[in-house]
Design brief:
The protein has a single domain, classed as Alpha/alpha barrel (Glycosyltransferase). Helices cover about 45% and strands about 5% of the residues. It has helices spanning about 30-50, 65-80, 85-105, 110-130, 140, 155-175, 190-205, 215-225, 285-305, 315-335, 350-365, 375-385, 410-425; strands at about 235-240, 255, 260-270, 370, 375. Strands 1-3-2 form a three-stranded antiparallel β-sheet. A two-stranded antiparallel ribbon has the order 4-5. A hairpin with a 6-residue loop joins strand 2 and strand 3 (about 260-270). It is globular and about 55 Å long.
């Protein structure tokens, strides 16, 4: 029997395919899907109940964060399956546009607010007018390794101009070190703002808007590679494979319950190397930021290769892919859905933000596994069990670890949003993630 190739960690989605395509191979345990659907319905209803008559969502803080909160509410609703033709979306985006116009005059746009608005706008228009899949040539259809991109959204002229303005602002806001800060003129670059900026840029790209100066992604990739932990424990790469492809004569093949089994290749281990929140701060390495590092690497590589196919040579490509594998090894070593994991210490804050970050990793890398863990199964079970059932906040979520948010009402709003985006797999895939590695020889060939 032929020996399996290592998993091809690339999002092999059809042009208008849902991120749930690969998940169909891993059905949830009996009854859990019904519980997830019920939790999503209740969560959506709770989020929708917060929207004000002017279309806004309250965040209990003044200033630019108000439009960011409104965009987060709109993103959550549209990704959760709310009817995109509902007038609440038109009102909501009108409110956001008005607020952003006011803040533009003061030069007071914010990375998070703009990025989430870009993501919400794309999500709304994609749901409102689903784009058609482009026709594939016979050669493309016959090529088993061909991965079509996600179909691009055609925005109405007014929204296209708005999205273009936000894209140009976002690209112009990147500092000389290849990173982003919270607001114009702010110090303290970090990888949280940077991954959100890249998610916003990717949303604009999927709306057919050209990214000015695609070479910026090279600088971003260089910065990610430099700031990742330099070393870590060696973790054997544990790859899920179909049982029929398992060479049982190989001593490295091990059994595991379920439809898939595992091939552990101890000779080709990865080093568990995470990412920090702040560059140069080893104490800020945690699950959410390691997920953010993977997302930043995947998006930067995908966008650069989509726009300039020959921009990444073989040596650079190998470095990027190994950095992604090493970060996945860190997640495997520290895997936990009940807290935002931090090596050797108590769970970090931003627990539900971490869960949404974990979802982005699964979708963008194109895998249902983090090592032997089925990340969605474990996360969904946890979130279903943690959803509030008390009368005042039924359908919402709030982490037991308080984040750097002033009021519990604010945390409940953002935590519920992150939870729903996890449960609905709200991230859009990109065409290119990790380059497929070569097929490993069979035992008899070694």
């Amino acid at each position: 029997m032929r020996n399996p190739a290592p998993i091809i960690l690339v999002a092999t989605f059809l042009a208008v395919c849902s991120p749930n395509a690969r998940a169909a191979e891993y059905p949830l345990p009996e009854g859990l899907q019904e519980e997830v659907n019920d939790a999503i319905d209740k969560g959506m209803a709770w989020i929708a109940s917060l929207q004000q008559p002017d279309g806004s969502f309250p965040y209990f803080q003044p200033g630019h964060r108000h439009e960011g909160a409104t965009s987060l509410g709109l993103l959550t609703l549209v990704k959760s399956g709310w009817n995109p033709r509902d007038a609440r979306f038109t009102k909501g985006f009108e409110f956001v546009k008005t607020m952003m116009d006011n803040h533009r005059q003061n030069g007071d746009w914010a990375t998070y607010s703009v990025a989430i608005t870009m993501m919400a706008l794309e999500g709304w228009q994609r749901a409102l007018n689903p784009p058609r899949a482009p026709r594939l040539s016979r050669e493309e259809q016959a090529d088993p390794n061909f991965v079509p991109g996600v179909a691009k959204v055609n925005l109405p002229r007014e929204l296209q101009a708005w999205m273009t303005e936000m894209l140009q602002w976002m690209v112009g806001r990147m500092n000389q070190n290849g990173m982003w800060t919270y607001t114009s003129g702010a110090s303290g670059e970090d990888f949280s703002n940077t991954q959100l900026a890249l998610l916003g840029i990717a949303a604009a790209y999927r709306c057919g808007i050209n990214v000015p100066n695609a070479d910026i992604f090279k600088g971003i990739l260089d910065r990610y590679l430099r700031e990742q932990q330099q070393d870590g424990d060696v973790i054997p790469r544990n790859t899920p494979i179909k049982p029929l492809e398992l060479d049982r004569s190989d001593p490295h093949a091990t059994s595991s319950p379920g439809r898939w089994e595992y091939f552990t290749d101890a000779r080709n281990g990865d080093r568990a190397r995470g990412f920090p929140y702040v560059p140069g701060d080893p104490g800020s390495v945690m699950g959410s930021m390691t997920c953010g590092g993977i997302v930043g690497l995947v998006l930067s590589k995908s966008l650069l290769k989509e726009i300039k196919p020959d921009a990444i040579d073989l040596e650079f490509n190998i470095k990027i892919d190994q950095a992604i594998y090493d970060a996945l090894a860190w997640l495997r070593q520290n895997f936990n859905v009940e807290t935002n994991p931090r090596r050797g210490g108590a769970g970090a804050q931003w627990h539900y933000y971490y869960l949404y970050s974990l979802e982005r990793v699964g979708v963008l890398v194109g895998t249902e596994h983090i090592g032997e863990h089925l990340w969605y199964h474990e996360g969904a079970r946890y979130l279903v069990d943690q959803q509030s059932k008390d009368r005042a906040n039924a359908g919402s979520w709030m982490s037991g670890i308080r984040d750097h948010i002033d009021k519990p009402e604010e945390q409940r709003f953002v935590d519920t949003s992150w939870a729903l985006l996890f449960l609905k797999r709200g991230t859009m895939p990109m065409r290119i993630a990790i380059t497929p590695p070569p097929t490993r020889p069979t035992t008899s060939q070694q």
